[in-house]
Specification:
It is a single chain. The radius of gyration is 17 Å and the shape is globular. It is 9% helix and 32% strand. Strands 1, 2, 5, 6, 9, 10 and 11 form a 7-stranded mixed β-sheet that branches. Strands 4-3-12-7-8 form a 5-stranded mixed β-sheet. It has 4 helices and 12 strands; from the N terminus they run ββββαββαββαββββα.
């Protein structure tokens, strides 16, 4: 598999590739379960929990400032793709639309298909995070999380939830799907936070 689909990082990329990772020659697709098929007409995004409840549609998101982003992408299954080019909306711009209780410290990301993943408010609110709806200039395909996914470049890619459709704001940490099944609570690539010590990994 190494050589056909993946390669070791060269000297010029060593500082950008976390330990234990190989560079993907394509853009692999890894999905647990069926791939949701959601049109932009039916897509909606909910906010609830320790925040004023609100529902947004596709047009609401598209009315926000749109930006081009280039970010490296690191999967917990030991592949990385450098310089992925996205189009999206900054998390910080979206957060200007909602009212959040000061007690909020954590968020549960909710997605079409029932997937969840947790993230701290501190990690979520970083300036480089965004909601992506295009990749390499094309509409984000369903297999990569379209019509919209979150992208959190500084954590492993399972935190960049595909098919995202809601945020639940929490005062304390709750674990999402993969976190309940042995993955690390946070997922920092440079620290190789792949799996939870509670599961013996």
């Amino acid at each position: 598999m190494l050589g056909k689909f993946f390669q070791k990082p060269g000297k010029e990329d060593n500082e950008r590739v976390p330990p234990g990772q190989h560079l993907a020659k394509g853009f692999p697709v890894l999905t647990y379960g069926a791939t949701p098929q959601v049109s932009i007409e039916e897509w909606e995004f909910r906010v609830w929990g320790l925040a004023k409840s609100a529902t947004f549609n596709w047009s609401d998101f598209m009315a926000l400032p749109q930006h081009e982003f280039t970010a490296d992408f690191h999967c917990v299954t030991r592949w990385s793709k450098l310089d992925v080019k996205w189009t999206g909306i900054k998390v910080t711009d979206f957060m200007g639309l909602i009212e959040v209780d000061p007690k909020v410290a954590h968020i549960m990301e909710h997605c079409y298909g029932g997937y969840t993943t947790n993230i701290s408010m501190e990690d979520f609110m970083r300036e480089e995070n965004f909601f992506a709806f295009k990749v390499f200039g094309e509409d984000l395909p369903a297999e990569h999380g379209g019509p919209m996914r979150l992208v959190v470049p500084h954590l492993y890619a399972w935190k960049s939830a595909k098919w995202i459709n809601g945020l639940e704001f929490l005062a304390s940490e709750e674990l999402g799907f993969w976190e309940r099944n042995g993955y690390h609570r946070r997922g920092e690539p440079w620290k190789e936070e792949r799996y939870s010590s509670a599961f013996g990994f």
